């Protein structure tokens, strides 16, 4: 039995080396295309790859094992293309489970940089085109920092974990959009406003509305709306009509591929 395990390990090693050689070729092509400059991360490709792997998965293989092996491979494949730093909130801001989520998503090779405050985190990705940040889905600090920053090219590019797991933490990845957000993508919109009424009535069916520390923050009420891309235009029209009422502000935070369910 152990002889067979050794043979399997040798075969896996060959296949993984072949995968890294292929990624190196992808890197050469990417660096030849000026438009592709910046972070090597391609979230749309990553989620479609994870979706395909979940379909191929054999029942003997536990989902968390498959997910972590490939997140590690993709994380390593990203780092051999360029040093992509991952900015994240310090554990005091986001908790230890969030740190695990970040490591599980980006792999062992990713250099992490922790930030004590949200504006510093947003400034770091604004200043470094190759970098990304990972932020908790439910927090309002990063939303406010993103709304306050003038960096229009930085926004939400992914939802993590990319394969839904009953995990203790979830978040969004911030960076510069590098691959086409198409079918199966969602749009994240922030609604901020002093005395604005609950905006649920303004939204088309299928929109998910999450109050973010509703009413409690010093900046007034804040909601995050997640929309299927097919609904985006209609919803934005409806929301824009109300913009200014009671100080309601509407801002698209970004687009991300829907995680694998
Ligand atoms: O397809 C690419 O563009 C790659 O760089 C390869 C790869 C992968 O390992 O499969 C790595 C990073 C990207 O985010 C997407 C996929």
From TrEMBL:
GO biological process, alphabetically ordered: chorismate metabolic process
GO molecular function: chorismate mutase activity
EC number: 5.4.99.5
Enzyme class: isomerase
Matching InterPro entries: Chorismate_II_sf (IPR036263), CM_dom_sf (IPR036979), CM_II_prokaryot (IPR002701)
Origin superkingdom: Bacteria
Listed Pfam families: CM_2 (PF01817)
PROSITE patterns xrefs: CHORISMATE_MUT_2
First and last residue of the signal peptide: none
Domain Chorismate mutase residues, every copy: 1-85
Protein name as it appears in the record: chorismate mutase
């Amino acid at each position: 039995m152990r002889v067979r395990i050794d043979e399997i390990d040798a075969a896996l090693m060959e296949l993984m080396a072949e995968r890294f050689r292929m990624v190196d070729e992808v890197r050469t092509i990417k660096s030849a295309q000026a438009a592709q400059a910046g972070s090597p991360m391609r979230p749309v490709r990553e989620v479609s790859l994870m979706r395909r792997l979940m379909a191929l998965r054999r029942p003997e293989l536990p989902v968390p094992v498959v997910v972590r092996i490939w997140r590690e491979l993709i994380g390593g494949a990203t780092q051999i293309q360029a040093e992509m730093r991952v900015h994240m909130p310090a554990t005091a801001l986001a908790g230890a489970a969030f740190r695990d989520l970040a490591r599980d998503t980006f792999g062992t090779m990713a250099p992490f940089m922790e930030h004590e405050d949200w504006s510093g985190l947003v400034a770091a990705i604004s200043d470094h085109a190759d970098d990304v940040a990972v932020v908790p889905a439910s927090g309002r600090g990063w939303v406010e920092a993103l709304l306050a920053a003038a960096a229009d090219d930085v926004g939400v590019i992914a939802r993590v974990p990319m394969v839904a797991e009953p995990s203790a933490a979830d978040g969004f990845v911030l960076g510069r959009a590098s691959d086409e957000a198409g079918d199966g993508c969602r749009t994240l919109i922030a609604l901020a406003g002093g005395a604005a009424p609950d905006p649920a009535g303004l939204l088309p069916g299928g929109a998910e509305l999450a109050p973010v520390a509703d009413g409690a923050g010093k900046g007034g009420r804040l909601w995050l709306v997640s929309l299927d891309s097919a609904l985006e235009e209609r919803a934005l029209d409806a929301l824009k009509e109300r913009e200014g009422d009671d100080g309601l502000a509407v801002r698209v935070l970004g687009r991300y591929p829907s995680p694998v369910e």
